[in-house]
Amino acid sequence: MKFLIIGDIYSQDGRRMVQEWIPQIKNYLQEQNENLDFIIANGENVTHGKSISLPHYQELKQLGIDVITSGNHIFAPTTNAINYIKNHKDLLRPLNYSPYHPGNGTILVTAKNKKKVRVTNLIGRTFMDKSDNPYFALENLLKLEASSKKERSDIHIIDFHAEATAEKLSLAWYFDGKITALVGTHTHVQTADNRLLPKKTAYISDIGMSGVYNSIIGANPEEVIYRERTLLPAKFQPATGEGQFCAVLLTTDDKTNVALKLERIFITPENQQLILY
What we know:
Oligomer: single chain
Number of helices: 6
Radius of gyration: 18 Å
Largest sheet: 6 strands, mixed
Strand content: 15-25%
Structural class: alpha/beta
């Protein structure tokens, strides 16, 4: 199977880049006599840089995105996601959030060839707001899968929304061979460490951001520099301009469900060619 996993989509220009490049990726694969089977995207920055409104959720779903993950901004008050998320099971909040948070942290979807694909959203604890232990949350989920045939997945993909690279690596190494892939989001900067771990779990520290290229992780440089330089408060505004698109393409074996490769996609104004790294 082929899975397109899109990193943090930042504001209007991020949505525009996703709308532009999903069809091109589908066409590219069809030219290789392959199909795109499943799409995951991180949507926690979709609406003006924080959280995702219901109209923008619907917009992403219309593009063919199967599951939308999130992170620390999902319940920003400007979007009302806290009220509608419970009615949309394919919009995830981190599994290791407090049980008082509405919504799901994981979803099991029947995909192509009746493959049962599980997508789980976790959040890190280093330099982040308080959350429960991601190890315990994922261990409990895997115990549930082992004890219930109904909950068992063929392919399990984790979006680990975390700040520290070592925290992401540690979680991936601990669960190597127990999950199909662990991909990092949150830092908005694509890392070049995509690989298969020794027991064949696919890994990358951060997929990167889809948004404005000449920005500071999606925001106008002026406000960010002002706050960093002066330590005075400043409200960040989404940048506007030419965009970038960041994603990874995960390939799994149709018979064994094991990850075969994880390839990066990084589109910029200077590089408009679809190249898999």
